[in-house]
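Researcher: Go.
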Amino acid sequence: MQSARRSDFLTIPRLEQIPHIVHGFGTGEWKDADFKKRPEWAGFRLLFLNQIHSTIIRFIDRIPEKKLRGDVMITDIPEFLLVIKTADCLPVLVVDEPRKVIAAIHCGWRGTSKRVIQKGIQGMVDRYGCRASSLLVALGPCIGSECYEVGEDVLQSFRQEGLSSEFFRAHPSKIKKYLFDLKGENISQLLSLGIEKENIYCADACTHCDGALPSYRRDREKAGRMLSFIGMSF
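Model: Structure:
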C-alpha cells in the first residue's frame, strides 16, 4: 500500500511532500462538515459535482453559480477543494507539480468503459499544457478485483468501446458472471497515455472488505460516501 492513514482519511506520502497540495481519501467517518473543522483549510471553497458516470469535464476557473454535472474537475486556481464522492467506484487525484494544476476524477465501470480517466488527463494536457509524463496520479480505495462481481453487459460494454477484456476474470462459481479489476483497468489506461509507472500511487484497500470504508455493494442504501479531495494553497 502506498498510502498512510491520518485521522479520518488516507493520504499519499508523495503528494504530502508537495507544500502547496492538500489531499485525502476519506473513510466512512469523514463527512462534509469535517472540512470546516480544520483551521488551515478555512479559506478553501468546497466544490462537488453531480456525478452521472459520464466523461464530462469541468474546468474550474471561478466559483460555479450552481452545482455542476460531470465526473471530472480540473483547475489551476488555489483554494478550491475538488471533492469526489464514491462508495466502491475509484476516486483519482492528479497533480501537475511544476505547472500547479490539479484534477479529481470519478471512475465507475461506466466511466471507465468510456475512458474517463484518459479524457481527464487529456483535458489537463490540452487546456493547461501539462505533460502526461510529469503527472502524479493517486488512486484511492475502491472495490477490489476479488469482490467486484459484474455481468455480461459490463464485459460487452468494454468490448464495444474497443477495450481489452484482460481485466475480467470468469467467476469461479457463477455462469456469465465475472470478477472485474477496476483499478487495474484504469492503471492500464494511464500507462497507455504515457504516465510513468513510478508516478502512479495506490491506496490499495478494498472498500467491500474494509468496514471503515463505504461500500454500496456491501451495505446498499445504508452505505455512506467516501469523500476524496484535492486542493492547492497559495
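Model: The CA atoms of residues 131 and 175 lie 44 Å apart.
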